[in-house]
Amino acid sequence: MVSPVAAKPSPKHRSGCPVSISLDVFGDRWSLLIIRDIMVRGLRTFSEFQHSGEKISTNILADRLRHLENAGIIVAERAADDARSIHYRLTPKGIALAPVLLELFIWAAHHEPTGAPPAYVEQLEQNREAILAETYRRWQHRDPTPLMPPFKSPTRSPKGNRNR
Amino acid sequence: MVSPVAAKPSPKHRSGCPVSISLDVFGDRWSLLIIRDIMVRGLRTFSEFQHSGEKISTNILADRLRHLENAGIIVAERAADDARSIHYRLTPKGIALAPVLLELFIWAAHHEPTGAPPAYVEQLEQNREAILAETYRRWQHRDPTPLMPPFKSPTRSPKGNRNR
DNA sequence: ATATTTTACTTGCAAAATGCAAGTTACTTG
DNA sequence: CAAGTAACTTGCATTTTGCAAGTAAAATAT
Q1: Torsion of Cα atoms, B150 then B67 then B19 then B36, to 10°
Q2: Cα B99 to the center of its chain, rounded Å
């Protein structure tokens, strides 16, 4: 049995629309950043998330980790070497959010002043499939090598407003 | 001049990461639903949004419309026929969120019990580009014909947890 | 062996965001 | 010209967030 997801009549959701349900699950300011940290920055532990750049407070972090775990997006497991440490990893449901993160990334890099170098963004756009495949490969191999660096502060203006 | 986006050193953002910035702009429970309503359901007015299924209260709706307009994602324009009515439409920056919404949709349809029929989701996945092209075409032509119906309540369990 | 750190959290409280109900103002329709 | 209707605003209660300061258990340093 491969954990069949229960088909409950969604008690906690506002509507049956998948977009709406996505937002019910991780539609806040922090959840996707935690997922990003695990997925592309190779972070695993509470304190790594805590010091990951954007100052999340510990109560909120604990709360979000709980929620993401309850939603089946991450799993917590004790570290082999340190009995205090807990490693959070993405489940299949969690790694499946890679395309969402990628599109979010590309959108903001195009339309907001971000810290992502234009040439880098160009690369991502041109090689969506390859990037996703590599992300997935690292997940399978539990390879914590960061796929991307943390982008610090805006280097320049967003790319021209060409659409499509 | 084609409205060059100012290259300010992002005063209101938590970090330079594009994902983080996206969340700063529309990372709440309602913004993307409004964008979805305009993009794929053909809704235009305040009262249409208000009665669009998931019960947003009017003060929040007004606030989100203001924010989305300030962010350059939507524009408000008076209706030609009715001087009271205001039509909200997506800007190029707004329609560029189509891939994000599509991936959110596909993710939830696969991993949560939603109201979207599996066969329909299959179609979407197989024809991402075509769907996006059609979405974009309707936006260009200001065609308010809904691309998708509102999905009511979960019909069955989410599709099997195959990844990739 | 004991003191200090480190890790993963809680707890308490103030501040901000959200939700609900009831206005309000400017049109438009009967 | 009275009664809608559209797009909000306002007040207030509830919930969520953020900040600072704990705490328990395990690891490390002396």
Answers
A1: 10
A2: 10
Distance in Å, residue A68 CA to nucleotide D16 C1': 17
Helix axes A98-111, B18-26, angle to 10 degrees: 80
Query: Which bases in strand C are touched by protein, i.e. have an atom under 7 Å from a CB?
Result: 6-12, 17-23, 26-29
Beta bridge partners of A88: A76
**Chain B CB contacts of A54 below 8 Å:** 14-15, 17, 20
pLDDT digits (tens, 9 = 90+) for B28-82: 999 999 999 999 999 999 999 999 978 999 999 999 999 999 999 999 999 999 9
User: Does residue A87 sit in helix, strand or coil?
Assistant: strand
B47 CA from D4 C1′ (Å): 15
Q: Which of A60-89 are b and which e, b meaning 16 or more Cβ less than 10 Å from the residue's Cβ?
A: ebeebbebbeebbbbeeeeeeeeeeeebbb
The two three-digit tokens of residue B144, written as one number? 């308010």
Spatial neighbors of A69 by CB under 8 A, at least 6 apart, are A75, A76, A88
For A34-43, the pLDDT digits (tens) are 999 999 999 9
Q: Hunting for tokens 């495949």 — which residue is that? A: A133
Query: What is the distance between the alpha carbons of residues A46 and B144, in angstroms, rounded to a whole number?
Result: 46
Q: What is the DSSP letter of A84?
A: S
Select from B60, B124, B66 the least CA-distant residue to B98. Answer: B124
Cα B111 to Cα B160: distance, rounded to the nearest angstrom? 8
Q: How far apart are CA A115 and CA B15, in angstroms?
A: 8
Rounded CA gap, B164 and B161, in Å?
9
Beta strands in chain B (DSSP E): 74-78, 86-90
d(CA A93, CA B155): 20
